Amino acid sequence: MRGGLYMAGTQNLKIGSIHAHLAIFGGAVLIIYGFVYHAGMAKNDMWATVLLWVSVIGAVAFPFGEYFAITAGAHVAAGIASLIVRLSGLLFSFNVVRA
Fold it and tell me: Taking burial as the number of CB atoms within 10 A of a residue's CB, which of 32, 47, 54, 80 is the most buried?
């Protein structure tokens, strides 16, 4: 939310994609993960704990990686963070299929 307030206050929309990706993955996707686990549609074992930590790391690393890619041209950080987010999606699918 602070990113959106910053963009509105300064009229600097350069980081708009960061704000959008944070809302989608950091908000919506993690909420969906929680609902699916709460409903019992995914297997809740050691892999669920691994998914939790990979998702948290991805949710934190992805906006920072994207920020560094936009402002400093450090695209490697964004690529690594993107792979972490993709890994969380694969782990989630793996746990749903096993349930």
Answer: 54
